Amino acid sequence: MGWSYNAKSLIESYWYRFLNEKSRVLRTRNGFRFYGTIQTDGVSVSVIKKTATAKEKSSWKVRKRDAEANAAIETSGVGLTAPAESIATGLPPEAQPKKPRKRKKPGEKKPGEFTYIHELSPEQLASMKNPIFMDPGRQDIVFGMTEESTSEEKALFRYTRNQKAKETRITHYHKLREKVKNEHPDSNEIKAAEVRLAAFSCTAVLPDKYEQYVRTRAAVWPVLSKFYTNTMTTSKNRNSPQPIHRKLRQSAHIKQQQADARLAKRVRVTCDDEKPTVILGNWSAPMARYHEPIRGVGFRRMLRKKGCRVYLIDEFRTSKICPNCLIGTLKTFLKVPNPRPYQRKKMKEVLCHGLLKCTNELCMGPVEVDGVLTPRSRMYNRDLAAVLNFRHIFHDLRDHGKAPERFCRSQPAAIATADEQQPKKKRKTARKNK
Questions:
Q1: For an engineered disulfide with 37, which of 48, 81, 100, 379 has Cβ 3.0 to 4.6 Å away?
Q2: What are the φ/ψ torsions at residue 334 (nearest 5 degrees)?
Q3: Taking a C-beta distance cutoff of 8 angstroms, is the pair 314, 116 a contact?
Q4: Does the structure show a pLDDT above 50 at 79?
Q5: Final residue of a domain: which of 206, 230, 253?
């Protein structure tokens, strides 16, 4: 339930009739005050508070909109109950022409959303103070480094998948759901119903396949609804039991919001700025089996909502070029035990994806080990090499107005890496004799 600037008396008469205004939950703290909005899923309740500044801004927008509508009404002479379309055209609502739906072109981005840094002018780039460069990934959700970071005074930022799972308690909630399912009297029927329903996709667009999904769901619905709707908590701290699955979903949502707030605070502390500039790589990946989904545009919107100025950068070849010599090729070299136990029979060792070394001889030098001179290669973490190259691109765009040729997609063949110069093998296809 929300309210506008002129409904304070209604809010007090409705809300405070059932709630205690002086309770700890509704009390004003640190400038945040309850203005009549709550969120609930039927089990838990979140009280939404906001500052007086935010309320004044929203109230000012409402007053401005009402003033414009009243001015249009006085000018056109249309009644107060007429909608805005009637005011503009003078026609009744049923006679209004339908607006054509504007379709989004392939590859077109929303206006005013996530500008690339190569679209900015050198003056705009020069006005950025100590931006932080972030490289998104799977194991490391983001790996960041500020512009002023050096090898002596490092200013790095790392947020891993394990850290996120610990903060949001994803593993704990998953084990709790499995425990409740295994201890249920109809555990075998529930698991069989889930396996049967998992054979069909709820996002199918073909009518036949979607019909199969609907029929299957209708068949297993009595078993699943009985478990997921009627299973209650057994906590001794509460007077009345609550649906456990709805409670866990609400708790997971709150934990995710708290984790986002902590992450944004860490970014501000790392950059030493209340409104830091974040330059994110444009890497994105589709949903992979057995992997947690990656936050792409949602992560960018979260940072922007928390007050960060978010820009994108093209990641083309940023993990292939050595950030020290600027001409060497980075390659994987270290073999490690296969991290997937079920595949170790076929392949015991695999190349470590996150560790790279430069193949340029200028980045190599003799090092004495046990009295023997051995060549030394410069090694990098893949994410660290990417953010170092991000900084090279940012400096060239700011100083010269263009990105280095080694990171441009329309690059000359002379600076292509050794892997890109090798001809691609043609795939053999078997032809059937007619």
A1: 48
A2: -90, 130
A3: yes
A4: no
A5: 253
